[in-house]
Amino acid sequence: MEKMRRTAIDTAQAYGYQLVETPVFEQTPVFLRVGESTDIVQHERYSFTDVGGVDLTLRPEGTAAIARAYVENGLYNKPQPVRMCYYGPMFRREKPQALRYRQHTQFGAEIYGSVEPEADAEIILLACSVVEKVGLHSPVVRLNSIGCSECRPRYRESLIAYYEGRRSDLCEDCQIRLQTNPLRLLDCKIDVGIRSLAPDIKDYWCEDCRRHYGRLAELLSEAGREVVRDPYLVRGLDYYTRTVFEIGHPSLGDQTALFGGGRYDGLATTLDGPAATPAVGFGMGIERMLSAADKDFGLDRTLSVYVAHLPGYNTQAFIISEGLRQGQIAAEADLMDRSLKAQLRDASRRSHYVVIVGGQEWAEGSAAVKDLRRNEQKTVPVDELLDYFRRRD
Ligand code: HAM
């Protein structure tokens, strides 16, 4: 988990994003802006009233909290764009199941101040880059545009007309969606036959939306990312405008995204920000990333030196490891009274180097030192061990 956190934040910082920490709870109205018809607002909210009568909510997601912080701290007065990232727990009152938790961890990044598709592209490239750094190769980006306030209403009308004609065939949820949030009809995993003939928003995009989508897709493929347009991708949060995207992973099944996000040019305005505050970002599920990640990735090799010993040399190994630590070299010795073979197995999982205390080398005032990454072995005089590792660390 810690390695994932470092990888995500280091990658974002290399892209120029500043780590921002917002509180774990906010006043409830902040999250109501996500959209009254979204699941996380309607029935997945952990809300409570404090002793002073203030209505608070454990954050179900980071975007509204970052928007609140952007507005409250007047960040729109700073040179734009403003790039921010965050990492921390999110809370959703969902039915707990595999990779869908009531408390999950999200890494997210947001860019404020740019309307250009280059900002959308940068955000997606950053997310893909984190995915690759944990050993997941060639993520395929599912991309769509849900239009803007100019073209979406026309699409919405056609969609309603199409689904109204098939109302009696719709599942129970879709009957409700038809009233509350028609775009989410496309998200239904049950009525897939009906949606396959539904109108496609692409045919309704206004000129600006078409240009935005085209340029974004072009930038991503120029950057070597595989992109597929998913006409059914609408995302479950109401604040999106134009770009929406998700990435999955074969090991998670096709209903479970590693990360998702999009553009949300109106959210900060609803939180009393300036009239035009463009923004785009993503949120990434850390538990899902860990589940899909390369098996080697989770191993945190911060512990550099493992001082193993032959039978009878426990004390010497213990003292050498303490000497290395005093010299600021991360080191450990066996605390389990294990055989040399078991110690070496343990070392191979957690260390860069292993020192073997005992045997012929020890009789000559030295120890065998194995470099586990390069698979090399050397004999080093015991009183030079600290210098040896200082030169190498
Ligand atoms: P979201 O799709 O709701 O978007 O969540 C983002 C990611 O968090 C998901 O792709 C998934 O990996 C993870 N996630 C969500 N819920 C759970 C859960 N119950 N258990 C485990 N993992 C979960 C957002 O939250 C938006 N704020 C993303 C965004 C940022 N849009 C713009 N900027």
Q: What separation lies between the terminal Cα atoms?
A: 23 Å
Low-confidence stretches: none
So how many helices? 15
CATH-wise, what's the superfamily of the largest domain? Bira Bifunctional Protein, Domain 2
The CATH architecture of the largest domain can be given as: 2-Layer Sandwich
| Category by helix and strand content | alpha+beta
According to CATH, what is the class of the largest domain? Alpha Beta
Quickly count the domains: 2
Short description:
The chain is α+β, with helices and mostly antiparallel strands.
Write the layout of secondary structure elements.
Elements: H1 2-14, E1 18-19, E2 25-27, H2 28-32, H3 39-42, E3 47-49, E4 55-58, H4 63-72, E5 82-91, E6 103-112, H5 117-133, E7 140-145, H6 152-164, H7 172-180, H8 192-195, H9 207-222, E8 226-229, E9 243-248, E10 257-263, H10 267-270, E11 279-285, H11 286-292, E12 305-309, H12 314-326, E13 331-333, H13 340-350, E14 353-357, H14 359-363, E15 366-371, E16 376-381, H15 385-392
Parallel strand pairs: 1-5, 7-8, 12-13, 12-14
Antiparallel strand pairs: 2-4, 3-4, 5-6, 6-11, 7-9, 9-10, 10-11, 14-15, 15-16
